[in-house]
Amino acid sequence: MDAFEDIVSSITKKTGQQIEKQDQNLEFVGIGGSMSSEGVINFETLSFNVKRKLSRDEGIALISKIVEVYKRNIYSEKKMALYLEKHSFNFKDLQINLFVFDCNGDEVLHPDFKFISLHKGFFRFTRINEKE
Length: 132
Known about the structure:
- The chain has three helices and five strands, in the order H-E-E-H-H-E-E-E.
- With 132 residues, it is an alpha+beta fold.
- The chain has one domain (2-127).
- The protein has a five-stranded mixed β-sheet with strand order 1-2-3-4-5, with helices on one face.
- A hairpin with a 5-residue loop joins strand 1 and strand 2.
- Helix 1 (2-22) packs across helix 2 (56-76).
- The chain is elongated, with a radius of gyration of 16 Å.
- The protein starts with a helix and ends in a 5-residue tail after the last strand.
């Protein structure tokens, strides 16, 4: 089982690095995830710092791009074939976290989004309270 977890972690890390290379405003900051005791992926996590403000639509588009690259990497990995015969893999198996900063790397303020994520198929958009 550990070997399978290592394969999945390797794919997750590879995806983060690929995405970071494609966009100079993205910094890949980490991975994580959860598997069931039966070895089924509950979710895999990729986290990025984004050094530009994002609208709701831009956040959705960026996350969608990350999901597509990850799915392509999962399905092209020969060592995943046995797993994928029994379990499909889709966007609900991914958690994508985008920590948003301005172009200088400073914290964004209300009304801009500070955090945009996808978890279990749902998008979340978070703003910082004006008083913070």
